[in-house]
Amino acid sequence: MKIIAGLGNPGNKYNNTRHNVGFIILDWILNNPKWEYNKKFKSFTYSENSKLYLKPQTYMNKSGEAISQTLNYYKLIPKNLNFFQKKDTNLKEKLVIIHDDLDIEIGKIKISENSSSAGHKGVESIITHLKTKNFIRIRVGIKKPIELEKIPTEKYVLTKFSNNEINKIKEAWNNLYSIIKEKTDL
């Protein structure tokens, strides 16, 4: 079983916002599947070919709750003495997180492994809950253009993409998809 989670915030008011680019990309990968709400995972889920795709509904800053519950349910996190989660577990073959990244230009995508959250609250929540940063992250650029630099970050990430911006991201995704798929087994 492999878990592939796109990060975002629940509710229609956050549709097509920069913070929800993980949700947007999951819909592209799966060609708009029929998502089902799973109460125990606090997520919308879709399962296919030994992969479970997640859209956590815990809000971005609490993404780790949903991710850790899912990995624990499927016994993908080793435990010490069958109780405590083992620290620094290698989850590269089991977990892929897709999320926005303010340090990367719009239209650019990077893959990271075993790296810090770099201030991303959703990723920090996951690292804290899993006790490891050793998983794959697909970081999708949402960097502020110069003309929007004065907007506070917490407001900027909740603004909607322009058509031009979403087209840049989709073009980058389509151009890199075969490489991303090979490296991450989406």
How would you describe what is shown here?
The strands form two sheets. A seven-stranded mixed sheet has the order 2-3-4-1-7-9-8, with helices on both faces. It has a two-stranded antiparallel ribbon with strand order 5-6. 34% of the residues are buried. The model has no long low-confidence stretch (mean pLDDT 93). The protein is globular and about 50 Å long. Helix 2 packs parallel to helix 3 (121-130). It contains five helices and nine strands, in the order E-H-E-E-E-H-E-E-E-E-H-E-H-H. With 186 residues, it is α/β, with parallel strands linked by helices. The longest helix has 22 residues, at 163-184. It has one domain: Rossmann fold (3-Layer(aba) Sandwich), CATH 3.40.50. The chain has helices spanning 21-30, 63-73, 121-130, 153-156, 163-184, and strands at residues 2-6, 36-38, 43-48, 51-56, 79-80, 84-85, 95-101, 109-113, 136-141. It is 31% helix and 23% strand. The chain starts with a strand and ends with a helix.
